[in-house]
Amino acid sequence: MIGTSDSWGVEKPSTAFFERVVAEAGCPAGQVLYVGDRLDNDIRPAQEAGIATALVRRGPWGYILDDRAVSDRCLFQLNSLAELPNLVRKRNESAR
Questions:
Q1: Which domain holds residue 78?
Q2: How far apart are CA 96 and CA 88, in angstroms?
Q3: Residue 56: beta bridge partners?
Q4: Less packed terminus of the chain by CB within 10 Å, N or C?
Q5: CA–CA separation, 35 vs 37, rounded Å?
Q6: By mean pLDDT, which of 1-5, 7-11, 29-33 is the weakest?
Q7: Which CATH number characterizes residue 52's domain?
Q8: Beta bridge partners of residue 53, listed in sequence order
Q9: pLDDT value at position 16?
Q10: What's the number of domains the chain is made of?
Q11: From residue 10, how far is each of 17, 45, 51, 58 by CA, in Å?
Q12: Is the pLDDT of residue 1 over 80?
């Protein structure tokens, strides 16, 4: 699922945005993987909502913002979205 703050009328990092992510997913927050490229606006608030996270390091904010306490809690740290499907598949296979 892809949701945007514009289409939902709620700004990130508002908790309402991440509550909407969970509601749209239709499962518990811990079963959702939120993929974002900013630690401050995406990853930290998603983690605070109990959502698993993946950080895509791209653009200036992917490198300017550095908070190891937040990034170290990500399930995945990627340089490209193209890496994500294989990482998720491997994680799902190991969880069986």
A1: 5-94
A2: 13
A3: 78
A4: C
A5: 7
A6: 1-5
A7: 3.40.50.1000
A8: 34
A9: 92
A10: 1
A11: 6, 14, 18, 24
A12: no
Cα four-point dihedral sign 62, 67, 34, 52: positive
Chain centroid to Cα 90, Å, comes to 18
Burial 20-38 (b: 16+ CB within 10 A, else e): bbbeebeeebeebbbbbbb
Q: pLDDT (tens digit, 9 = 90+) per residue, 53-79? A: 999 998 887 778 889 999 999 999 999
Q: Name the residue among 63, 2, 6 with its Cα closest to residue 33.
A: 2
Determine contact, residues 27/49, Cβ cutoff 8 Å. no
- For residue 87, pLDDT over 80 is answered with yes
Q: Tokens 């995406």 identify what position?
A: 42
Cβ(77)–Cβ(65) below 8 Å: no
